Amino acid sequence: MKDKLEKTGHKKGYYMRRGFLKGLALGFALLTVAAIPIGISYKISVAKLDEPKTVKHLEETKKQQEEESLPEASIEE
After folding, report:
1. What integer pLDDT is reported at residue 13 of this predicted model?
2. Range of 55's domain?
3. Which of 8-12, 15-19, 69-73 is the least confident region?
């Protein structure tokens, strides 16, 4: 290690900081990758909670469209 320090001119603290920063970057990358499934499962659970409202709204819209599209019954005398 002493040869490397003399050859490059760096101090011991330089290599310690460099190792710490590499470890920090690796840890951040692992946390980011681990957060992806959590985010996906959160989006799915939110969608499942909103599903009954969406289905109800779609049914109401469908009924309104059917009522509007029904022709008026002509009254013959």
Report:
1. 87
2. 2-64
3. 69-73
Domain count, the chain: 1
The per-residue pLDDT for 34 is 93
Q: How far apart are alpha carbons 74 and 53 in whole angstroms?
A: 37
Write the single-letter amino acid at 68.
E
Residues 39, 43: Cα–Cα separation, whole Å: 6
Report the pLDDT value the prediction gives residue 60, as an integer from 0 to 100. 78
Q: Which residue has the tokens 């939110």?
A: 46
Task: Report how far residue 38's alpha carbon sits from residue 44's, in angstroms, rounded to the nearest whole number.
Answer: 10
Domain assignment present for residue 70? The answer is no
Say which residue the tokens 């909103």 belong to.
50
For residue 27, the Cα-to-chain-centroid distance in whole angstroms is 20
